[in-house]
Specification:
heterodimer; A: mainly alpha; two-stranded antiparallel ribbon; 51 helices; 2 strands; 64% helix; B: alpha+beta; Beta-Lactamase; two-stranded antiparallel sheet; 7 helices; 7 strands; 21% strand; globular; golgi apparatus (chain A); transport (chain A); Adaptor_Complx_Large_Subunit (chain A); protein transport (chain A); AP-4 complex subunit epsilon (chain A)
């Protein structure tokens, strides 16, 4: 099919595309599209539109929506189009609805019927179109409506339909596993389909199913292995070859499934060894797809029960990847290394330089993958270098998502492997300083708890050293501008608890610092709360120690400011502080015992100390307490009661107050609503009025409802609570008390960090984490292998001399890679009897670059490509079947592995049931349907048009794929 | 599973966007924009892979290929193989090239429907359906032939049954 000269579109559409292509700004583009929408709205409702015209309108709608504008006015026309008899319109209709609608859209119900009808159509293309729509538009509720027909199609005569039916079923399984659970056995049946393509399609759902439930599918291991063997031995028709690889996508899927099945199963794994070894040997490492299979093979080997020989082969393949010039292969190599390293940790050592090259590569993807690898291979001996590198990288990037990830990894590694307390504190400081707002608040709480509880079990001196070093480092950092809030909270808390503990700093010095913080971050209430609580603790220690407390003027003004604060929490804290200062030493010790953050707080959940009070009240005639569960109509209360945050009072009324106005939202933005459509009438003006009345209706019996319309935050804070519980002040107090005593307490228990003990005894080669510029030093510290590095040292120091910048390619490595890559080409698969007829084709093919054939400039190229790709497809379907049968049969008698499956293996028995004579597949290369030569006139016309459009300003020639082909 | 296929030009204009899980229009635009931002910041001669967790949520990778003025982008999860996806892009482009003869951006703009047809033959419901561009071409041509025929004889719809009888 050519491009139909002038693209077969109307002048209008052409102009549209042209003007959009020429649009200088986004607003100009928007203007053009809006006017296009107006045009379409008018045109599309005209009576008697010719079908081709209608199709174009729908395509234009899709185009409009692709550019980000609302085309919902036309959805119904797309739906109507699916009902059309003409295949052209029907397909366009289906295409448009699959792009427009989601599975829960109201219009779907209008399509289900059409889909049902089309699934029964005699024309398999209609069936295919319907199946395509099924995948996208059928949701859990509508699955039963089409399920019987889809299942029936599993037995359709056309393999294309069977394939799609399997995938539709797979889609149902993804959407709602329960609805197709009884049909899963069908996949076992289709695995034995006579068409290899259908079998290949079945692997997709099987992969998903096996992922969830490995054990039920162990019996298929033998089938999968024998299929893989047959594929690898090139027993499939030539049409399944891709770049001289036999059915690589099927191989990849099979390897993935085998990896799942063989994981932790020695018996199953042992059956796979032979075929995996074969694939390692046969893989063509020159083509992209060959490497894809190879990579999958490595993944499989690293998942299944380990086998030394295969691991060696995998290691060899990895080293080829890493030595390659291609970034893609390096990436795969690093990834594969990360997988294999779990099984044989010493494999990384031989690739250390390659890994470091990747770490310094300008390619971000590769770099990140390498960090992932380093993360996996971190141990206590190399944690300093790795974490330091990670932090450096973290500082250098702007991508918040990845920053968060790498920060949490740093924290995790530091917590797990920290060689010393000092290093740990320093590292955490860096992480918080640069990514403080991104890390989980839990990390901060963990850090506080760690400082409070200490590293060791009983070593008090080490703990106090840790605290002192933390205090010292925080006092250094505290003056820096713009620290993240989380970090400041940690700092304030630590200074409050331990600031004066070792007597090195005076209370007034530390309180002065804390006041500075509160002043500098006056917008951050949490930080201020932490700061004032820290002040209170410091004063409490002073009073308890019998020293005179002199409150700095700035502290005084801070306390005054906060006691008039809008935040009740801050007020509370300020008043508490003021009261505390007035108490005598004995009382202070009771209220605020020093260094008690780790003490357990006993919680009397039944509040038994109130029993007396309750009893008294009841005797006086008070109403007995009704448990929450017994109350009706107040369900929401329980949800907020469970939270013990002190901010809760603010949210107390929210659920009623905020939910009602929701329907107003659309009326707030009437711009998005198009007024003119008669199809979807939007009663906009009446809408908001309705809401108004509904809110005005007094709701029954809820004491809070009178405040619904107020929605004033300040008011709620003061009034919201008492309506539910008389003890609101006491809860407030207790929660603030908790934070006073140690916020770590509130968040505790969640994680039990198993910290590497005795890590502090680890000998530090470098006192402060510090990376030398030379790679070999880095390598040695990362991989810690002094024995092997000696040899490498010379070569790499060589390298450093040669090229100071690490980014340049290393020539001798390249050479090594070249030779490595050349080797495998000589390894040819042993010629098979069945393949003999085709070997001539194969052997001639490799000499011609397959890309060249695409160029479409050489007639010859096209002729060669035709038999290669299209040979068997051109021949009749029965031939393929019979060939496949024959293969299966001979495969059975072939190796030892294959002789096993005969009993009970449903795949092979299903296949051997067929007895059809073999026919030579590739012998009769069908007349190529693609042998149209390039039409010079066409190309020239196109070129002219392209220039006129100005869509492709960068290239003169319309042949855009030069770079691909050359 | 493959999550999305996008084709966009080097100015960031989408030429094809297909999401195998439904995304509302605004979200689609956002995704396209962020993908373009990620791609345009990448240097030449680096790998074709981008980790796309930040854009598409957990466990998503992105493979792209740059041809002249167009980016071809596939987004998928860990159940697919990156190198294989790269080859799938190759298959897609090869098929387009066969279909349009020296395909260029304009072909793609104007033959949106045809391009979708081709894509639907290669990827079906997020799974790889066919990887031989010759096979795809065969099917696509058959569809086009039938479409043309059904269009030509729309005035006499009964004759359509002769096609169905095949």
């Amino acid at each position: 099919m050519g491009s139909q000269g002038g693209f077969g579109q109307s002048k209008e559409f052409l102009d549209l595309v042209k003007s959009i292509g020429e649009a200088r700004s986004k607003s100009e583009e928007d203007r053009i599209i809006l006017s296009e929408i107006e045009t379409l709205k008018r045109r599309i409702v005209e009576p008697d539109i010719p079908k081709r015209k209608m199709k174009e309108y729908i395509i234009r709608l899709v185009y409009v929506e692709m550019l980000g504008h609302d085309a919902s006015f036309g959805y119904i026309h797309a739906v109507k189009m699916t009902h059309d008899d003409s295949l052209l319109l029907k397909r366009t209709g289906y295409l448009a609805v699959t792009l427009f609608l989601n599975e829960d859209h109201d219009l779907i119900i209008l399509i289900v019927n059409t889909i049902q009808k089309d699934l029964k159509s005699d024309n398999y293309l209609v069936v295919c179109a319907a199946l395509n729509a099924v995948c996208r538009l059928i949701n859990e509720e509508t699955i039963p409506a089409v399920l019987p027909q889809v299942v029936e199609l599993l037995g359709h005569a056309k393999e294309a339909v069977r394939k799609k039916a399997i995938m539709a079923l797979h889609r149902f399984y993804q959407k709602s596993p329960a609805s197709v659970l009884h049909l899963i056995s069908n996949f076992r049946k289709t695995l034995c389909d006579k068409d290899p393509g259908v079998m290949g399609a079945t692997l997709c759902p099987l992969f998903d199913i096996v992922t969830i439930d490995v054990n039920s599918y162990k019996d298929l291991v033998i089938s999968f292995i024998s299929i893989l063997k047959q594929v690898a031995e090139r027993r499939l028709p030539k049409s399944y070859d891709y770049h001289q690889m036999p059915a690589p996508f099927i191989q990849i899927k099979l390897l993935k499934i085998l990896a799942l099945l063989g994981s932790g199963d020695k018996q199953a794994s042992e059956q796979m060894y032979t075929v995996l070894g074969d694939i390692f040997r046969k893989c063509d490492t020159l083509s992209n797809i060959g490497n894809a299979v190879l990579y999958e093979c490595i993944c499989c080997v690293s998942c299944i029960y380990p086998n030394t020989k295969l691991l060696e082969a995998a290691a060899e393949a990895i080293s080829k990847f890493l030595k390659s010039e291609s970034h893609n292969l390096k990436y795969m190599g690093i990834d594969a290394l990360g997988r294999l390293i779990k099984i044989s940790p010493d494999i990384a050592e031989q690739h250390q330089l390659a890994v470091i090259d990747c770490l310094e590569d300008p390619d971000d993807t590769l770099k990140r993958k390498t960090f992932e690898l380093l993360y996996k291979m971190t141990k206590s001996s190399n944690v300093e270098v790795i974490v330091d590198r990670m932090i450096d990288y973290m500082i250098s990037i702007n991508d918040n998502h990845y920053k968060t990830e790498i920060a949490s990894r740093c924290v995790e590694l530091a917590e797990q492997f920290a060689p010393s307390n000092h290093w740990f504190i320093q590292t955490m400081n860096k992480v918080f300083e640069h990514a403080g707002d991104l890390v989980n608040i839990k990390v901060a709480h963990n850090l506080m708890r760690l400082i409070a509880e200490g590293f060791g079990e009983d070593d008090d001196t080490a703990d106090s050293q840790l605290r002192s070093s933390a205090v010292e480092s925080y006092l250094c950092i505290i003056g820096e501008p713009k620290l993240p809030s989380v970090f400041l909270q940690v700092i304030c808390w630590v200074l409050g608890e331990y600031g004066t503990a070792d007597g090195k700093y005076s209370a007034s010095y530390i309180t002065g610092k804390l006041c500075d913080v509160a002043e500098a971050y006056s917008n951050d209430e949490t930080v201020k709360a932490y700061a004032i609580t820290a002040l209170m603790k410091l004063y409490a220690y002073e009073i308890a120690a019998g020293r005179e407390v002199d409150i700095l003027p700035e502290c005084q003004s801070l306390i005054e400011e906060l006691s008039a604060s809008h935040s009740t929490d801050l007020q509370q804290r300020a008043y508490e502080l003021q009261t505390l200062i007035g108490l005598d030493a004995r009382a202070v010790v009771c209220v605020m015992p020093s260094d008690a953050s780790c003490e357990d707080i006993e919680i009397d959940k039944s509040l038994s100390f109130l029993n007396h009070y309750v009893q008294e009240s009841l005797e006086k005639g008070a109403q007995p307490y009704i448990p929450e569960s017994a109350r009706t109509g107040m369900l929401n209360i329980s949800s907020f009661r469970n939270e013990d945050h002190h901010e809760v009072p603010m949210h107390g009324l929210r659920f009623e107050a905020y939910e009602l106005p929701q329907p107003v939202v659309p009326s707030k933005s009437p711009v998005s609503y198009t007024p003119s459509t008669e199809l979807v009438p939007v009663p906009e003006p009446s809408y908001s009025r309705e809401i108004h009345t509904s809110t005005a209706v007094p709701s029954i019996s809820n004491s809070g409802s009178t405040e619904l319309k107020l929605r004033l935050d300040g008011v709620q804070k003061k009034w919201g609570r008492p309506s539910y519980s008389s003890g609101s002040t006491s809860t407030l107090e207790s929660s603030s008390q908790k934070t006073v005593n140690g916020s770590a307490q509130t968040e505790s228990v969640s994680t039990s960090t198993s910290r590497a003990q005795a890590t502090s005894s680890f000998d530090l080669k470098k006192p402060q984490v510090e990376i030398s510029e030379e790679k070999q030093r880095l390598a040695a510290s990362l991989f810690g292998g002094p024995s092997k590095t000696d040899k490498r040292l010379t070569s790499s120091s060589h390298k450093v001399v040669k090229s100071s910048s690490h980014t340049t390619e290393k020539p001798h490595i390249a050479k090594a890679a070249d030779t490595a890559l050349e080797k495998p080409t000589t390894v040819q698969p042993p010629p098979d009897l069945l393949d003999l007829g085709e070997t001539t084709v194969t052997s001639s093919a490799p000499s011609i670059d397959p890309f060249k054939q695409l160029e479409g400039l050489l007639d010859q190229g096209e002729n060669v490509s035709a038999p290669n790709h299209g040979a068997v497809n051109a021949s009749k379907a029965p031939d393929i079947m019979s060939l496949y049968v024959e293969i299966a049969a001979s495969g059975q008698s072939g190796g030892a592995v294959n002789s096993v499956p005969t009993n009970g293996d449903d795949m092979l028995s299903g296949l051997s049931g067929q007895s059809i004579r073999t026919a030579s597949p590739g012998g009769a290369a069908g007349s190529s349907p693609l042998s149209k030569g390039p039409n010079l006139k066409d190309a020239l016309e196109k070129d002219a048009l392209v220039r006129q459009m100005g869509v492709t300003p960068t290239s003169q020639n319309p042949n855009l794929f030069k770079d691909l082909l050359g | 599973m493959i999550k999305a296929v996008m084709v966009m030009n080097t100015q960031g204009k989408p030429r094809l966007a297909k999401f195998y899980d439904y995304q509302p229009v605004e979200k689609q635009q956002e995704l396209i924009r962020s993908v373009f931002a990620a791609l345009s910041s990448r240097a030449e001669n680096v790998s074709n892979f981008v980790e796309a967790d930040a854009i598409f949520g957990l466990d998503s990778r992105l493979v792209y290929k740059h041809y002249a003025t167009l980016y071809f982008v596939f987004v998928f999860d860990s159940s697919e193989n990156e190198l294989a996806m790269l080859d799938l892009i190759q298959v897609f482009v090869e098929t387009l090239d066969k279909c349009f003869k020296n395909v260029c951006e304009l072909d793609i703009v104007f033959n949106y429907g045809k391009m979708q047809t081709i894509l639907d033959e290669i990827i079906f419901g997020g799974q790889v359906l066919e990887t031989s561009s010759a096979e795809v071409m065969k099917v696509v041509e058959e569809i086009l032939k039938l479409e043309a025929a059904s269009n030509a004889i729309t005035l006499v719809p009964k004759t359509v049954s002769s096609w169905r009888g095949r």
